[in-house]
Specification:
By secondary structure, this protein is an alpha/beta fold. The chain has a domain of about 180 residues: Alpha/Beta hydrolase fold, catalytic domain (Rossmann fold), CATH 3.40.50.1820. The chain has twelve helices and seven strands. The chain has a seven-stranded mixed sheet, with helices on both faces. Helix 2 crosses helix 3 and helix 4 runs antiparallel to helix 8. It is globular.
Amino acid sequence: MTQLPSAVSVRESGTGTPLVLLHAFPLNASMWSSQLDALPGLTGDGARVLAPDQRGFGGTELGSDEPSLDAVADDLALLLDAAGIERAVVGGLSMGGYVALAFARRHPGRLSGLLLANTLATADTDDVRANRERIAAAVTARDSVRLLLEERLAAKLLGPDSQHLVERVESMIAAAPPATVAWTQRAMAARPDALDVLAGLRVPVAVVAGAQDAVMAPEAAELMVRARPDAELTVLPGVGHLSALEAPEVFDTAVRALLRRVAAG
């Protein structure tokens, strides 16, 4: 297991079932502000919510490991140790979902439930891997993430009814260090297929998708549900890739349903 970076930024609120929320690329844990406010406070399905900034994002250091989501998953195990948490519901959106699946593969005994939002359990295609390397090389050469803003990444991540959030998402993208963007793109490109991991879990699973997701079509969610037929699927109409930001109330309803299933054993 890798060593947890010496500087780690974690937002936390509430009591109840431990719930870790893992942010999308190239954002940071501030994307979970609504969930940090809403999820801890309800009787019976409240949660102790932890939203860490993953390696290199927000206030967390990148560290010196080679690019690998396994390192990020191991960070989460060490973070749970530091928080005194044996098992947690782990939820990830987009890249956060990749990390959640890596955590499920490497630390299945630490998992009490799994939330996969706007993500997929298959490996990248050759074309996607090539584009990740293009971006990694470009931001490294420029020492800037302006390329991501020039390519209107924020607008592409959001559904057509959520373009009012572009400025907020752009501010998170602009805060991402170039070295972190490059490292993370290469880590995502190297991840393996995880459908077998998903199928083999013995914990409650919830899958959330945006009907207008231009990055990951709802078919990716349906593929995960075919691998795990007892998973609860929620498809949010009119929502793009950042469902937790675009439709927080409906997203939180799906999370609370998962927390109730976990509590019921």
